[in-house]
Amino acid sequence: MLAWRCKPPAALFPLSIGTFVEHFPFIKPKAFPLYRIKSKSLTTAAAIRTHNSSCFDSFSCRQKQQIRLYVDTLLQWNQKMNLTAVTDVDEVMERHIKDSLAMLPPIQDSYISRSNSSIDSIKLVDVGTGAGLPGLVFAIACPAWKVTLLESMNKRCDFLEHAVSVTGLSNVEVVRGRAENLGQSVTFREKFDVAVARAVAEMRILAEYCLPLVRVGGLFIAAKGHDPQEEVRNAERSLKLMGASVLQLCSVESHSPYGQRTAIICSKDHPTPRKYPRDPGTPAKLPL
């Protein structure tokens, strides 16, 4: 069972949960002869069958199959390009799928409490999605959501487009580009209900990447480690300049060896000034 607790940024109290993710036997690759998983990776499937959880009880057979296909594809492509440092199924489930799914309850609860509109059809952008985490996993878990995967590296976009095709997802768009450019584009600026970022940059940089994409009244969620208080304090000025404020910090504790995760929930209170985001590369070089 997933358990999580939200508190104002001044107080962060972790709450333990039981095992979160049920691991499934994985399909041996058939359709990707150029990217074959080494036999060492395949042997982990036997070890993960002992993990039990109610996490996927609400998933349809199709959704479970999509998770399997995504993880298989990720590991296959990872043999030829740098998508993740994780090299076996067990670690992918623990460190990537589990952590991504743990973000959903805080996002859903925060959005419902802040908005009069339905969460069933929200528009979400995953900034710097990399291998599709957490955005592609969200798209599987919430098929009514419209998910945009924003990635600047062409090779990673090739993988993402392939993964979307393999899993049969129809609610995902892969966008090649930098957040600084898209944040100034009329097509994307303040068009999303929610922006998320995981393992991209420190909070004050993420604020300038993500918040120009979020509509007023929407949310920006950053996935961080167990103690993000100092990082949040350092980002206060950046958040304010972007028209946002910290709404709450939600801690999620797992029994995995990777420990507690924190979802920093920020609300978009005012429009972002037109001068933000600054030119590509400037937010990282000269954080606000």
From TrEMBL:
<keyword id="KW-0808">Transferase</keyword>
<keyword id="KW-0489">Methyltransferase</keyword>
<dbReference type="GO" id="GO:0005829">
    <property type="term" value="C:cytosol"/>
</dbReference>
<feature type="compositionally biased region" description="Basic and acidic residues">
    <location>
        <begin position="269"/>
        <end position="278"/>
    </location>
</feature>
<dbReference type="Pfam" id="PF02527">
    <property type="entry name" value="GidB"/>
</dbReference>
<protein>
    <submittedName>
        <fullName>S-ADENOSYL-L-METHIONINE-DEPENDENT METHYLTRANSFERASES SUPERFAMILY PROTEIN</fullName>
    </submittedName>
</protein>
<dbReference type="GO" id="GO:0070043">
    <property type="term" value="F:rRNA (guanine-N7-)-methyltransferase activity"/>
</dbReference>
<dbReference type="InterPro" id="IPR029063">
    <property type="entry name" value="SAM-dependent_MTases_sf"/>
</dbReference>
<dbReference type="InterPro" id="IPR003682">
    <property type="entry name" value="rRNA_ssu_MeTfrase_G"/>
</dbReference>
<feature type="region of interest" description="Disordered">
    <location>
        <begin position="269"/>
        <end position="288"/>
    </location>
</feature>
<keyword id="KW-0949">S-adenosyl-L-methionine</keyword>
<keyword id="KW-0698">rRNA processing</keyword>
<keyword id="KW-0963">Cytoplasm</keyword>
